Amino acid sequence: MASLKGPGEAQQFDGSDLRIGIVHARWNTSIIEPLLKGTKDKLLASGVKESNIVVQSVPGSWELPIACSKLFSASQVQSTTTGSSLSAGDLLGSSTTDLTALASSAPTATGPFDALIAIGVLIKGETMHFEYIADAVSTGLMRVQLDTGCPLIFGLLTVLNEEQALARAGVVSGSHNHGEDWGLAAVELGVKRKEWA
Ligand code: DLZ
């Protein structure tokens, strides 16, 4: 029997004309890494060109909204100028981590993004920190999405413990990698956004 959860059956969307920006937090890196891989795998499987995927990292989930906003603005500026292109890691001067190996190393094409994906993992601690960040980041990401008109896929895991996070990153045997859903959602929304324009 099909699971009640998940996005359900959808048609295959062709991502070959899309530019996708990914911003991921570095907190909880061991969980971020498989999520980012799952996301990228589905983008590539949907036809998105490696050179049209830009990956940026920020310290923690708190920084995701501002980074997504800036990344989108920068891509719009690029589309009106020539001679510069965004490449992985250069937006916020982010340091090189193992995760950047998952980023495109080729120079990226210019032009505004068709969809953005924000990836972070918030794990509840003993204080109210989790609640404040989860609420603010969710609200911030929605605001960026509506203000820019660029679909922004919500890749923020808000979990009670590490086990729950691992089970949503496809790390535990038999578990599903939610990053794959985020990659597919970005392609679907990127294609539909062009149709809606
Ligand atoms: C400080 C903090 C804590 C305690 N927990 C997390 C977390 O579980 N996931 C995450 O992505 N980031 C965490 N951070 C870092 C904040 O998001 C942020 O980077 C810092 O407060 C600096 O603004």
Provide the domain count: 1
Structural class by secondary-structure content? alpha/beta
Instruction: Describe the strand arrangement of the main beta sheet, using strand numbers.
Output: 2-1-3-4
What do we call the CATH homologous superfamily?
Lumazine/riboflavin synthase
Ranges with pLDDT <50 over ≥5 residues?
88-107
CATH architecture tag: 3-Layer(aba) Sandwich
The shape, in one word, is globular
Bound molecules: ligand DLZ
How many angstroms does the end-to-end distance come to? 38 Å
Question: Can you summarize the main beta sheet?
Answer: 4 strands, parallel
Q: How many helical stretches?
A: 5
Rg is 16 Å
Protein name: 6,7-dimethyl-8-ribityllumazine synthase
Catalytic activity: (2S)-2-hydroxy-3-oxobutyl phosphate + 5-amino-6-(D-ribitylamino)uracil = 6,7-dimethyl-8-(1-D-ribityl)lumazine + phosphate + 2 H2O + H(+)
GO cellular component, one term: riboflavin synthase complex
Family: Belongs to the DMRL synthase family.
